[in-house]
Write a structure and sequence with these properties.
single chain, mainly beta, Elongation Factor Tu (Ef-tu), domain 3, SH3 type barrels, 2 domains, 2 helices, 12 strands, about 45% strand
């Protein structure tokens, strides 16, 4: 049995599509094209264990991804999936380039300054047009811009990030 912690959500079922059991999915990934090659996914419904299932067909329609999931052959069966997350094992995520990270890998990292001062843990990542913002919480909340000038080292193995505290950063 697969654990929810070993899965990553890539989509969410928001409605049915047609009357043959297809579902309408919104993408939760920066790589929506990945749905085209999906053969096996996990359905995650609140309060239930993940269900392994096969994807029979995938196509795009009006900004949504439409999935035909094996065993869901009617609109009444497909309605049961509304609100479900579509998930894959973490090891099947698309490989990122150097110095690119998945948000869920950053959440929880311990952050310290390059002078050794503990600043807290990353609790959120705010997507921003210029650069992302890492929200760090300890006694107070600190917003850290994800730039090369500030972020000096990210060590996922040891769950640690080292930053350079530029002047004025603590007042953000």
């Amino acid at each position: 049995m697969v654990q929810k912690e070993s899965l990553v959500n890539i989509g969410r079922v928001v409605a049915t599509q047609g009357n043959r059991g297809e579902v309408r999915v919104i993408s939760l990934t920066d790589f929506p094209g990945r749905f085209q090659n999906l053969k096996k996914v996990y359905l995650i419904q609140e309060g239930k264990e993940p269900i392994t299932t096969e994807v029979e067909r995938t196509w795009h329609h009006k900004g949504f991804i439409i999935l035909k999931i094996k065993g869901y052959d009617s609109i009444s069966l497909a309605k049961e999936l509304k609100g479900s997350f579509i998930a894959i094992p973490k090891e099947e995520r698309i490989k990122l380039k150097r110095d690119e990270y998945y948000i869920d890998d950053l959440i929880g990292l311990e952050v310290e300054s390059d002078k050794g001062k503990r600043l807290g843990k990353i609790i959120d990542v705010i997507k921003n047009p210029g650069n992302d913002i890492y929200v760090v919480r300890n006694d107070k909340e600190l917003w850290i811009p994800a730039t090369k000038e500030v972020i000096k080292r990210i060590d996922l193995e040891n769950k640690k990030m080292t930053i350079h505290m530029m002047e004025g950063l603590e007042s953000l």
